[in-house]
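Sample entry (120 residues):
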Amino acid sequence: MKRTSLPALSAALALLLAAGLSTPAGAQTKLKFVLNWKYQGPQGIFFLPEDRGYYKAEGLELTIDQGNGSGAAVPLVANGTYDVGFGATSTRSSSSRAESPRMLPLRFTSSTISRRSRSP
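Predicted structure, serialized as tokens:
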């Protein structure tokens, strides 16, 4: 795993665990999770823990669906279609904090899809 992927993976796990869900011993909590975009490389940070059994070890049964843009994820969580989403918080349409979904802000300091090459 590349070094820059580890913070993103940690943030993804923290996002899911920060949902405030606790389960009795042996019980699995079912969560529906919507991505910000299609199944592509950058979204792999959510599939790796599933493949390695980390979610299951924490009592989570996660269903991951592809999204249609980071702006679409927040309203889907707000209206209850999904329990957890990965999207842009700037698209939050509700002015009331009581109506807004719980959000955990994340900041990526590196992108794997756009890098400027420096010429000598």
